[in-house]
Amino acid sequence: MESAGPIRVLLVDDHSVVRQGLRVFFDLQADIEVVGEASDGAMAVAAARRLHPDVVLMDLIMPGMDGLTAIAHIKSEEPEIEIVAVTSFIEEEKVTAALEAGATGFLLKDAEAEEVAAAVRAAYAGEMHLDPAAARLLAQRIRQKRTEKDLVEPLTERERDVLRLLGRGMSNKEIAAALFITEGTARTYVSNILGKLGLASRTQAALYAVEHGLADPDAG
Description:
The protein is an alpha/beta fold. Helices cover 51% and strands 14% of the residues. The protein has two domains: 7-139, 3-Layer(aba) Sandwich (Rossmann fold); 146-211, Arc Repressor Mutant, subunit A, CATH 1.10.10.
């Protein structure tokens, strides 16, 4: 995703003090602009539809429509919007459900402000950003589930190469440099991979690559 100005962020949390704190911090960042706030999932979906933010910081536990449901709605309507899921504690079910719904990253609410900003910037660049505890949990789950099923048959050899690099958490720019292709070509390969495998995001593609033995969960 490319933009001429700062990264446009939508804050979603049912606690106003959390939103206010994040807004104050982001106001100090030259490259990030808060364009709106929402206090539940339904408001988040409506705000995303109206404001078209680049990145949404989405609390998962909220009254009414929860964050997981809101992520799925937003990604189905506007797949170009990147979403970072935020919650108070790590649960495997919540982490995997958020990523499967289309979230690009996962943070704990006690993360340092600079880490939150880093997650926003990473999501905007199309890169994964996971809380270390979430990353370890996913790596463990993937090791347990790993299979050698050949479910990448629809992919060309070059697309498999790109999928391997996605599994190492590489950005389009890094993939382009590694394979000696243009960044635009790398972006096209990623889009083709998502379409062929029925995946919603590059985060899902990265997890898919690791699950099917194309990348080391501890690499990168």
